[in-house]
Predict the 3D structure of the following.
Amino acid sequence: MTVATNLIDCTFTNQQLEEQPLTAQHHLLESGMFDDEHLIRVLDTHPRDYLNVHTMGTDESSNQWREGDASKLNGEQLWEATKAGRLWLNVRNMAQHHADFRKLINDLYDEIQEKAPGFHAMERSANLLISSPRALVYYHLDIPCNMLWHMRGVKRVWAYPPRNDKFVPQQKVEDVICGACNEELDYRAEFDDEAMVVDLQPGQMVTWPQNTPHRVSNLEGLNVSLTTEHLTPKARRRIKLFRANRFMRHTFGCQDLSQNTEGIDYTMKVLSYSVVRAWQKLFPKKAEGYHYPVTFKLDPSKPAEIQEVAR
């Protein structure tokens, strides 16, 4: 299949995508889908069950990430509140709810697959991120592979060495993947000495290997980005492995569990865990999972002001 689009100037290989943080130029702004009018329309029409509003503190080392309720605000009010306040909007599952974004996301991945032989993106999805000029996201990791496509404003991104217990213990990755805790990690300022740091300008993207710890601070202006998520065959195996490892660690007390996603050891662990999971489905119990409590709300009359929710 020949892809006619020219959405990204990438020269990286599939092996590089799996092993190191990378940056490239992109041309998504030429689509016209990221101007004020289009984005406000997205905020107006997107299902509110898939639109999260957050606020946070100012200290990058002290996690104060909070979930809010903006259900009474329309798209323009949300837009203006984000420009004036200290908010981070996460508009989830864009491909599922907007046909133009679904096409854009698939065109992106199809083009990368053609330009990076061996790369295969399954379970493609994307979230639209709209955030205030000085907003930040704390040190954390994500479960799938992701790519951050920046459109507006300037944001600084720190990506830390992947698969290194110094930056995130293996047990923590297992817990996040299994939904036993949230994605936030314990941050130390000295970690920055070994990070790849990028000041993303409009028209730039950054990506990193699966489960890489990272954090973000907005430097200038209202920020708009698209974060795409996918799984490769290796990434899917890694998720299965970490679920099996956590089961073995908590059930049998196993330690020093391999992260190798190939070979007989991997096959036996995943097969054994699959049998256990099949048995557990016969006697289901409440699944593990983590949800942020709603601790503030936004009022249409004063949309940029945080109003505490009684708990």
